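ARCHIVE CARD
Drawer: 12
Card no.: 0347
Subject: one protein chain, sequence and derived structure
Cross-reference: see card 0346
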Amino acid sequence: MKPISLHVRVQIASSVVLAAFLGMTGLVLDEAFRDSAKAALRDRLQGYVYALLAGAETNNHGDLLGPAELQEPRLRYPASGLYAEISRRDHDPGWRSPSALGVEIPPTRLPPLGHSALERVLTENGEPLFVLSFRVLWEEGLRKPRAYTFRVAETADAYEDQVGQFRRSLWGWLGGAALLLLVVQGGILRWGLAPLRRVASDLADIEQGRTDRLRGGYPVELSGLTDNLNALLDSSRSSLARYRDALGDLAHSLKTPLAVVRGVLENPARAESGLPLAQEQILRMHQIIDYQLQRAATAGRTRLAKPVNVLAKVTEVKAALLKVYADKRVECSMDVDPALDFAGDEGDLLEVLGNLLDNAFKWCRGRIRVSARRITGDTAVLDIRVHDDGPGMPPATVERLLQRGERADPDVPGQGLGLAIVASIVGTYQGTLAVRTSPLGGAEVAVRL
């Protein structure tokens, strides 16, 4: 099953929320209008009741009758839809308006004296009526007060027409507003999600080889993702380039040692005398292979790497070398912030620290100092300095010692690869390597990554 796109998901969710909101709004407005229309109907019927009260008269028997002249024309004509009656006993009308001829108003509950009640009822033929009942205590002269019920009824047709017209208008406008909002919402979503589509398009271009990185110009919410993807792509291309270069350099570097060994083996007469030379070339090939493997494995800076605590790695390398050079009783001090981190590969940091400290332990007379700090600017830079109190490195020899296989003193054990490996790693991180005279009297090697 093909997964639903992010655009469709957001569109469906927002459409459901919009439909629910407009639906609830419509129901609330419809209920409010119905209550308002019913209140207006009640007020109108109450007005008719007051008009009847104002014009009511009693007959010779003391019974209360309606006005002789009805002010409301609809009460004077049969089947007008507006009816009135006055009753003394429950639902036993003593007076009825001319309009109520042939119409029987169904019974309704009797309200307390001085109060009114509105009900919706159905006549015998199914006609809906709104009936307002109002009870009063009528006093006239010396006669005993009597309780009367005034009832005014009106057909529900006008009310239903009014409510129906409002509903049609309401849902028509809400439906139109919903369609308009859906169109606007779709445009906003398309505009808002355009950067994600651009990322997908750029990734497709990278897969098909039309470009080598995400082209940028993304909003701040995506910049972290796209920058890290670009950093990952750069790191991948850099690693591939290093492996290709290492293979080419390895093939080129092995040509001469292999030719020498081959010449010794192809000349049996010189095999015995040439054995030391062959062994020397084999050792050289071993050194070349180690160097190229170290160079190719350098990871380089990556934003996706887990930060490496510098103090922990310095302490780790120091502890190992103190055991290796235990007979020298070296005093190694450290000036490293415990919170300092390295945004790169752990193996690269260990390789740099291992080679620099190994050289310091090898050449020092008894004192070494290691410092590391963060230099802030356009980009954060890790500054590592290793000092020793050894003989130092003359400036004229620094360039030579940075080449692979070159050693300051052939009598001191080593392969001449340490500083060359450090220089290669520093170059991968686009950093710098400098060798100066240390305040301790020996060499100061400063590396910035």
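Annotation on reverse: The two ends are 48 Å apart (CA to CA). Confidence is low (pLDDT under 50) at residues 405-416.
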